[in-house]
Amino acid sequence: MIRIAIVEDEEKAFDELNEALQLFSKETGAEFAVSAFKDAVAFLDNYQSNYDLVFMDIQMPYLNGMKAAEKLRELDEKVALIFVTNLTQYAVKGYSVNAKDYVLKPVQYNRFQCMMKRVLCDVNAHAQEEIFIKNGGNMYRIRLSDIRYIEIRDHFILYHMDGKEFSSWGTMKEIAEQLEGKGFCRLDKSNIVNLKYVSDIEGDELHLYDGEKLFISRPRKKEVKEAFASYVRGERK
């Protein structure tokens, strides 16, 4: 699942871009979860580093796309960025904020299709790191970006993903070492969370975007908060 943010104040332009994404998804099988923002201020307010790709309109009220992109890079150095604009001369400045490409309004699907194939190669190279899980006599390959959290239960390691679970034998120590530096954080002796899915932390509870809550042990509370803060800033440790 590729998580996309579209920051666009024009409803018609948003609809054209969203339709192009839906057509691309239908043609290629790529799965997108799209979030819409009417302006850059709303997008950047409480920004979390949980997007793989951002489409940023350049001409917007309150805060234009170029300034917004500069602020975005202060928060997240790695998210793929594509500008959306009426004027090519604005888009060519994108190198200063490491933009991948630009989309001209109205969307020309042939160019959009070629651009998306190229950009998603880069996104997938970053987002689709994988691990192999052994269950009985079978081996499963799982994308790290699809794992919400991992827990140990009755001597089994359970990998919680959207709508499904995988289980295997192993220890939390082995899993924690395998996931070090990949955006995961250990909460206690039984749980490791993918920080990409964390919405906030309140006291000794960590909240996921789907509303699920996980407990943080007291000895790990400071470490977890620091890891989450680093992740939000786009750092990986």
- Overall SS class: alpha/beta
Q: Could you give a short account of the major beta sheet?
A: 5 strands, parallel
Distance N terminus to C terminus? Answer: 23 Å
CATH architecture of the largest domain: 3-Layer(aba) Sandwich
H/I helix tally: 7
| CATH superfamily descriptor of the largest domain | Response regulator
Percent range of helical residues: 25-40%
Low-confidence stretches: none
Number of domains: 2
Q: In sequence order, what are the helices and strands, one letter per element? A: EHEHEHEHEHEEEEEHEEEEEH
How are strands sequenced across the largest beta sheet?
A: 2-1-3-4-5
Question: Could you provide a short overview of the structure?
Answer:
The protein is an alpha/beta fold. It has helices at residues 11-28, 40-44, 65-75, 88-91, 109-127, 172-178, 221-232, and strands at residues 2-7, 32-37, 53-57, 80-85, 101-104, 130-135, 138-143, 147-153, 156-161, 164-168, 184-186, 191-194, 198-202, 205-208, 213-215.
